[in-house]
Design brief:
155 residues, mainly beta, five-stranded mixed beta barrel, three-stranded antiparallel β-sheet, 1 helix, 9 strands, 3% helix, binds zinc ion, Zinc ribbon domain-containing protein
Length: 155
């Protein structure tokens, strides 16, 4: 039986088959953007807004910081001790238009050796975990290939 692709958290990014974008929310009063999404009240302490609209976030941002996880975290982290630990790269990306920093894992094969602060990266579909029935989907950050047109140069 084919496994279903299921978002690890519903509503944080676009559905299968659509152009991949992270989804946040924007306050109608102060225009602040939130990710993870905030749907019931504005988190800006100086704002009483309670109406927020879903907005797709910028596809690209710049590396603000990064690190890697080379060992298995202790409980309550859930992982199968029978499976070899595979290091992963964690990247904090600044989205200039939204003025926020979004954490995410690096795309498969991306290591800290591939990264530098200020480097341009883009949000791409990723897989967090797989089991017998599901492929749990998430987002990854991937360096934008050198030579690709930069967002600022296209507009
Ligand atoms: Zn607000």
């Amino acid at each position: 039986m084919p496994r279903t692709r299921t978002p690890v958290v519903p509503g944080w990014f676009t559905a299968e088959g659509e152009e991949f974008r992270l989804l946040g929310t924007r306050c109608r009063v102060c225009r602040s953007v939130f990710f993870p999404r905030e749907d019931s009240f504005c988190r800006n302490p100086g704002c009483a807004g309670t109406e927020l609209d879903e907005v797709p976030l910028s596809r690209r941002g710049r590396v603000w910081s990064y690190t890697d996880g080379r060992y298995r975290p202790p409980a309550p982290y859930v992982s199968d001790p029978g499976v070899e630990w595979r290091p992963y790269t964690l990247i904090a990306v600044e989205l200039a238009a939204e003025r926020i920093v979004v954490l995410g894992q690096g795309a498969p094969g991306v290591t800290v050796a591939d990264l530098a602060v200020g480097m341009e990266v883009e949000a791409v579909p990723g897989v967090l975990n797989e089991d017998a029935e599901h492929i749990w989907t998430t987002w990854n950050w991937r360096p934008v290939k050198r030579g690709a047109p930069r967002a600022e140069e296209r507009s």
